[in-house]
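Work through this protein:
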Amino acid sequence: MGIPNDTKVEKYMSSLGTILITGSNRGIGLEFVKQYSSRNWDVIATCRNTSQAEELIELSKNHDNLDLMNLDITNQESVQEVANKLDGKPIDILINNAAYLGAPDPQKFGQIDYSMFTESFEVNAIGPIRITETLIENVRESNMKKIIFLGSGAGSITQIAPPVTLYSYRASKAALHLAVNNLYYELRPENIIVSLINPGMVDTRGFLDLKLGDPIPEHLTKMVPVALIKMIQEGKIPMITTLESVQNMMKYIDQLSINTKPLFVNCDGTPMPW
């Protein structure tokens, strides 16, 4: 990131640290960018195509501490290109947020779309480990040395319950959980902090506006199984806003230390079952 004037120099020198966030163009990732950039962090916001990320572009116009980078975590060349740009730059906090849910129908047993299954693993399980492995030297060189993965209750093996859907998403998140568990023990001797946080049932699509008995908009049924939407309408699955989730996670990330346990937590810091 260039520092062409005295104002930027002053901001840079007083920065709380550097944070890189994947999947920053919408939802939870975008909210992370908004919150951290407003709190004087040096923020590197990444997504596949920043030229189409209108909200990120607008944010960057008013925040000298915000840098936008194209990054496809499923593509090694793209990941390496970002690594080359950041060569020698410490990254205090790496937030692996990018994820792929996929439409519900192709994830039903009996009609599974295996190309979607593969994509789920590429984005949700392999991608976060790929970017972490490639940028590990940047994390090692930082003061805070924190690597955060966004998990999911859907990937928890012990708390799986009906309706049993989203085969590829759930399997890919469970795989991520196992990989993060390995990484925790791998990096702990170097005092690198690894944590997995479940952001909760976050309303990024307007589910909180649905009332009991309201017709379910078709665009929502293409993203989430109808059975789950009905449970949300009935109040059986509590949802929180994106801002609530991100603020809770930021509080938890701030107090993380090498001795913090458990490894898997919900956004409010309570333990999440394996």
User: Anything to note?
Assistant: The domain at 6-103+121-205+240-266 is CATH 3.40.50.720 (Rossmann fold). The beta strands are 18-21, 42-47, 66-70, 93-96, 146-150, 193-198, 202-203, 240-241, 264-266. The longest strand covers residues 42-47.
